[in-house]
Amino acid sequence: LGSGEFGWAQTKLTAQTLGFFSISVLFSGLQPLLARSYYALQNTRTPTYYSLFSVAVSILLGYIFGNFLGVAGLALAFTCGSILNTCLLYNGLKKQLADLDDEALWSKILKIILGTFAMAVTIQLVKISIGTIYDLDHFYEVALQAGISAAIGIATYFATTYFLGFKEFQLLGLERLIGAFNGRGQNGEKK
Question: Is the pTM higher than 0.90?
Answer without folding.
Answer: no
